[in-house]
UniProtKB/TrEMBL annotation:
A GO cellular component annotation in the UniProt record: cytosol
Claim: Oxidoreductase is one of the keywords in the record: yes
Stated family: Belongs to the DyP-type peroxidase family.
Keywords (A to Z) from UniProt: Iron, Metal-binding, Oxidoreductase, Peroxidase
Record-annotated Dyp-type peroxidase N-terminal domain positions: 13-141
Protein name in the entry: Dyp-type peroxidase
């Protein structure tokens, strides 16, 4: 993907929503050659991706890598993206957006679960003991891109030319051009209590109708819907979109039902503002009611540098 203003090859952030995805978060270990190994694996990621994607070109395989704030300097030795910092915990009156560790995120997407699996297997072989696992979540498409709350998820995402201008850093931060900030949160849902809420109430929580996905009007005051709370304007009244690639995950046998939230953005402050409005509330005290049924287990910020920067990581 490239924007007219960003002549640098970015990673495949704009890849289409697939029917399978793996979200892999790891931290670097303190082994003496960890950083060297990680650099060389990241620089060779394109080759690794080719090994796997050639086996079924129709499976639309992509892997996006995000680098965490704590490891950025050691790993890249390059100027820090202007907004990159660790995920800040947000404590609302009732709900908390927790901050959890993570040096690297691999967002692995494909139409085929086996292709995601095979890539991750070869990747972990290469990384060896240079990393330790923080979280591995396997997401799947649920019918017509619904989350496990039963709503169509991803509708308001930017499309076409609006994608690069929403997600790729441009001339405002020249050394980070072509990159994108990523925020992840792994949520689990209390489906039993969500299901006890009448559908009309659920629709008010989300801000769309459940069956046919029609947008409801924004509330002018009082309790706002999830859709309204996550619509962000700057001081000049410009709305700033982000790109979400959320996936359901879970295990009915063990009663786990979740949504893995992943947002890509050109401006980290936009996602941070969304989170503040969700957890603290807007006005403060009136938090996003989705949180009464959804608990974040993780919260981590990464920066996905351009593909060219990744490829140059092992050149001294
Ligand atoms: C439990 C986790 C979450 C679930 C189940 C969820 C679900 C949804 C659904 C069903 C919609 C309406 C359809 C759509 O436009 O996609 C929506 C909209 C949206 N959500 Fe979420 N969401 C979650 C967490 C988050 C978080 C953490 C953020 C940002 C920090 C976020 C940002 C947005 C945005 C920007 C929109 C579009 C608003 C607009 O209409 O412009 N969501 N979400």
């Amino acid at each position: 993907m490239s924007s007219q203003r960003v002549p640098i090859a970015s990673q495949r952030i704009d890849a289409p929503l697939t029917s399978s995805a793996t979200f892999l978060v790891v931290t670097a270990t303190s082994k003496p050659d960890s950083i060297t190994t990680i650099r060389s694996v990241l620089a060779g990621l394109d080759g690794l991706a080719k090994n796997v994607s050639i086996r079924d070109l129709n499976a639309h395989f992509t892997c996006t890598v995000g680098i965490g704030s704590d490891i950025w300097d050691r790993l890249t030795g390059l100027p820090r993206p202007a907004e990159l910092h660790p995920f800040k915990e947000i404590k609302g009156e009732k709900h908390t957006a927790v901050s959890t560790p993570g040096d690297l995120l691999f967002h692995i997407r494909s139409e085929r679960r086996d292709i995601c699996f095979e890539f991750e297997r070869q990747l972990m072989d290469q990384l060896g003991d240079s990393v330790s696992l923080v979280d591995e979540t396997v997401g799947f498409r649920y019918f017509d891109v619904r989350d496990l709350l039963g709503f169509v998820d991803g509708t308001a995402n930017p499309v076409g030319r609006a994608v690069p201008s929403s997600v790729l850093v441009a001339e405002e931060d020249s050394s980070a051009q072509g990159g994108s900030y990523i925020v992840i949160q792994k949520y689990t849902h209390d489906l039993a209590s969500w299901k006890s809420l009448p559908i009309e109430q659920q629709e008010k929580v989300i801000g769309r109708t459940k069956l046919d996905n029609v947008e409801l009007d924004d509330a002018e005051s009082g309790q706002r819907s999830h859709k309204t709370l996550s619509t962000i304007e700057d001081e000049n009244g410009n709305e700033h979109d982000i790109l979400r690639d959320n996936m359901p995950f879970g295990s009915p046998g063990s009663g786990q039902f979740g949504t893995y939230f992943i947002g890509y953005t050109r401006r980290l402050w936009v996602i941070e503002k969304m989170l503040e409005r969700m957890f603290v509330g807007y006005p403060p005290g009136l938090h996003d009611r989705i949180l009464d049924f959804s608990t974040p287990l993780t919260g981590t910020t990464f920066f996905a540098p351009s593909a060219s920067l990744l490829a140059s990581l092992d050149s001294d």
